[in-house]
Specification:
Transferase(Phosphotransferase), domain 1, ATP-binding, binds 2-acetamido-2-deoxy-beta-D-glucopyranose, Phosphorylase Kinase, domain 1, ATP binding, receptor, eight-stranded antiparallel sheet, globular, transferase, 14 helices, serine/threonine-protein kinase, 669 residues, alpha+beta
Length: 669
């Protein structure tokens, strides 16, 4: 009897094992309540499986990506007798843990794709799915559901916390801010994707209905009754015979998150099994919230009592050392506010050794945030005026929301008496002018310089046209362009010039900017505009091409002003004579010629004759070629980037012969 029971049990166990093997090999249905090395997954990039069962797609390294796919393809055989069904259902649990509170990127996507090879795809706003040449192409056959934490205006993103359904490209067919329908309250509630909290997603497609639904909820909720997104779509037009299913995640160049998947269930032609929430792996503990053993509590209490007694005395000392200015209006900027103490520790007490440089606005120190290994640059700006400070801080904080790979990311600020402190991403290679003008740093090749010019142009275009508001930089020049570890150009210090405006007495027009980069109308009226930024960018183009500043008084009289000098060389038929001699002629002449002429075009005294940053970038990218114009056109301030205006000009000045001695370019200098 006893023996029989045992063999029965063994038999049952054997069958259970066989059945579970068969189930786990069923290529149309699977469930992972946590992952393991034997999960039949294909991983690439930063993706890895933790021993505790967590699937991590990326860590917080910048501009990286990671993918995970179920190893076996889904099969949709169109040539078989019965037409395949494209219905599917899946649910998964994810978490995005930002590197700094409120400062994470870029996002996660659920993907169905004919290939598992995304080696050519880009990180950042491309989410590890596409690159700029295949984005949007119907030959991709890719369906993705994106959970995107950064607003990319180029892809028409609705905000920096949205879910979207993407077909073959990153411009979502439908998208919405991340919310879920909370049944008990009968209303939609916002979910913050980069809160670090775990959330569950359900994606369902029913072929007969032709509806693809995406539903999101916090891990503690059941599946809401209403999906967040629902579109009618025919997947048979998108899918090929074999499709792989999985996830992609990417980090940004200025903000990054740890991207995790905790569990995943999938079913083709049926409803996906529900995940066992209690069985899912735990997220790693964040820094600073590690639990202390209970025995320590008593000791801590004693310590607290002791501390309280000495803290009275310490307070006065502390206030001198770490005291800050907080005002009521700053409350809403909480997340962007750094405590002075943290910054003090990060920079080892603002030691001279940490000093990176000191510029017009104040001293800049290098630091490492105590809670992470993130390197930062801390800029201390002394500021006497209280007046206008709240408006300025509001602007600075809103600029912290600017995201572009060619901008130096502003992470936050801190305020002390008479002082404003700004925290930026650290740029290991320092500023461009040290490469251009100081000896001892390696010479930048022409291709490096050209790339930096395009980087800065695309950053300025973003500020001028692609963000919610027009942002004027007001101080474009080589020393405000910083180089990251890959020598990409990043524009820094945007908007800081405003600080001087605010500090100024209303009756005086306090001009900010740097001589040689100031457009003549700016010196006259004091009003900055996108055209005054373009003027400064023109001076910057010439500065980089010629390896010298716009105005160098120690030179021969005819060489003092760079614009005049280039125009003179050009008139003599030797425009290349003006370019940086250290390049020793190692550059494609068309590119050098383009940069010099474009620099002149931007430097014209007539604001309307200057191109827009969009046009400038088109020229630099070779999408549009520069119109032919002569040095005389430039001297008359009449060369133009606009076809019609230019031909009008040619007809009204057919001979184009008068060269004015009082060049308009000289005016305002
Ligand atoms: C991320 O993972 C990669 C590869 O495992 C590693 O080289 C890198 O140091 C990690 N970065 C961080 C910030 O942990
Ligand atoms: C698709 O179906 C046809 C007809 O049933 C069959 O001959 C063919 O081998 C199938 N292809 C695949 C890849 O299964
Ligand atoms: C973009 O990705 C596609 C597909 O992986 C690849 O064939 C192509 O070479 C990539 N293009 C660039 C510019 O990286
Ligand atoms: C789409 O990709 C195919 C092949 O990859 C290419 O031939 C075609 O030109 C691309 N179409 C567009 C609009 O880029
Ligand atoms: C999608 O959501 C709609 C309600 O918006 C519902 O009627 C439909 O049945 C859902 N379809 C699937 C496949 O879940
Ligand atoms: C909640 O959001 C869904 C999807 O965005 C929308 O269809 C619905 O009308 C919203 N419901 C309420 C009560 O706001
Ligand atoms: C989704 O968007 C792509 C590109 O914008 C477009 O080609 C496609 O037709 C759209 N599909 C649906 C179902 O709207």
């Amino acid at each position: 009897m006893a023996v029989d029971c045992r063999s029965l049990c063994l038999l049952a166990a054997f069958y259970a094992a066989v059945i579970s093997m068969v189930l786990s090999q069923d290529q149309n249905e699977f469930i992972f309540n946590g992952f393991s090395e034997s999960s039949n997954l294909h991983l690439d990039g930063l993706a890895k499986i933790h021993p505790a069962g967590l699937l991590q797609l990326t860590n917080t390294s910048r501009t990286e990506k990671g993918h995970t796919f179920y190893r076996f393809p889904l099969k949709f055989n169109r040539s078989s007798n019965s037409a395949p069904s494209y219905s599917f259902s899946t649910c998964f649990v994810f978490a995005m843990v930002p590197q700094l509170p409120d400062h994470g990127g870029h996002g996660i996507a659920f993907v169905i794709s004919p290939s598992m090879d995304f080696s050519q795809a880009l990180g950042n706003d491309y989410l590890g799915l596409f690159n700029n040449s295949n984005n949007g192409n119907s030959t991709n056959h890719v369906l993705a559901v994106e959970f995107d934490t950064i607003r990319s205006p180029v892809f028409d993103d609705v905000d920096d916390n949205h879910v979207g359904i993407d077909v073959n490209g990153l411009k979502s067919n439908v998208s919405a801010p991340a919310t879920y329908f909370a049944k008990e309250e009968g209303r939609n509630k916002t979910l913050k994707l980069i809160s670090g909290d775990t959330m569950q997603v359900w994606i369902d497609y029913d072929e007969e209905e032709g509806l693809l639904n995406v539903t999101l909820a916090p891990i503690t909720s059941l599946k809401p009754d209403w999906p967040l997104l629902s579109i009618s779509i025919d997947l048979s037009e998108i899918f090929l015979d074999e499709m792989y299913v999985g996830f992609s995640a990417a980090t940004g160049s200025s903000a990054a998150s740890d991207h995790y998947i905790l569990g995943w269930s999938f079913s083709k032609n049926g409803k996906a099994q529900s995940l066992e929430i209690s069985e899912l792996p735990q997220l790693p503990k964040h820094d600073g919230e590690s639990k202390r053993p209970e025995g320590l509590v008593v000791i801590l209490l004693v310590a607290v009592v002791v501390l309280v007694t000495i803290s009275g005395a310490a307070y006065l000392f502390w206030r001198r050392k770490y005291g800050e200015v907080h005002e009521e209006w700053e409350r809403e900027y909480g997340p962007q506010r750094f405590s002075y103490k943290i910054l003090y520790q990060a920079t080892r007490g603002f030691k001279e050794k940490q000093l990176l440089g000191s510029g017009g606005f104040g001293k800049v120190y290098r630091g490492t945030l105590p809670s992470s290994t993130a390197q930062i640059a801390v800029k201390r700006i002394s500021h006497d005026s209280k007046q206008g400070m709240n408006q300025f801080v509001a602007e600075i904080v809103s600029m912290g929301r600017l995201r572009h790979r060619n901008l130096v990311q502003l992470l936050g600020y801190c305020r002390r008496k008479g002082e404003l402190i700004l925290v930026y991403d650290y740029m290991p290679n320092g500023s461009l002018d040290t490469f251009l003008f100081s000896n001892g740093r390696p010479l930048l090749t022409w291709s490096q310089r050209y790339r930096i010019l395009r980087d800065v142009a695309s950053a300025l275009l973003y500020l001028h046209e692609e963000w919610e508001q027009v942002v004027l930089h007001r101080d474009v020049k080589a020393s405000n362009v910083l180089l990251d570890s890959n020598l990409n150009g990043r524009l820094g210090d945007f908007g800081l010039a405003r600080l001087h405006d605010h500090g100024a007495k209303p009756e005086t027009t306090n001009l900010v900017g740097t001589i040689g980069y100031l457009a003549p109308e700016l010196t006259r009226t004091g009003v900055a505009s996108t055209s005054t930024d373009v003027f400064a960018f023109g001076a910057f183009l010439l500065e980089v091409a010629c390896g010298r500043r716009p105005m160098e008084q120690w030179r021969q009289p005819e060489e003092v002003f760079l614009v005049e000098w280039i125009t003179k060389c050009w008139k003599r038929g030797a425009i290349f004579y003006a370019c940086d001699p250290r390049l020793e002629g190692n550059f494609p002449v068309e590119e050098m010629e383009l940069v010099l002429k474009l620099g002149l075009l931007c430097s014209q005294s007539q604001p309307l004759a200057r191109p827009s940053m969009r046009q400038v970038l088109q020229y630099l990218n070779g999408n549009t070629s520069l119109l032919d114009f002569s040095p005389e056109n430039i001297e008359n301030g009449m060369a133009t980037s606009n076809n019609e205006a230019f031909s009008d000009f040619l007809t009204s000045f057919p001979s184009n012969s008068h060269s004015s001695t009082d060049s308009i370019l000289n005016k305002g200098r």
